[in-house]
Design brief:
- The chain is an alpha+beta fold.
- The chain has 3 helices and 5 strands.
- A 5-stranded mixed beta sheet has the order 1-2-3-4-5.
- The protein starts with a helix and ends in a 5-residue tail after the last strand.
Length: about 110
């Protein structure tokens, strides 16, 4: 349910959903979308209140590296070149009757050395 809400949120902001739950072996991308500025690899974190850690803390270095590797596989398999790429997080917080969706565009920038 959280992932669908994230898709609806992104679409309302001009994103076209290209893939959901895309897998390459043990790697997974929650949402891949395209917007006028480029491709967005979006990690969705759906939680029920109360939450003790921040959403960005839950997408730590280890998780980021896995998403980066999955994104590279995605780009190679789909033969997508020359597009700007962004790594975003969408948080969906269920708090009783209220649901709060927050968007963290460019939540991290992968470093390749």
């Amino acid at each position: 349910m959280g992932e669908q809400m994230a898709c609806d949120f992104l679409q309302s902001r001009g994103h076209q959903i290209l893939d959901r739950n895309w897998r390459a072996g043990h790697l997974e991308l929650d949402i891949v979308s395209e917007a006028p500025d480029g491709l967005h690899f979006v990690e969705v974190k759906a939680r029920t209140a109360p939450v003790t850690t921040t959403i960005l803390d839950q997408v730590n270095n280890v998780k980021q590296k896995r998403i980066n590797a999955a994104a590279l596989q995605y780009l190679n398999k789909k033969a997508l070149k020359g597009k700007e790429v962004f790594f975003d997080v969408v948080s969906v917080l269920f708090d009783g009757p209220e649901t709060v969706v927050r968007y963290f565009p460019q939540a991290w920038i992968p470093m390749y050395i």
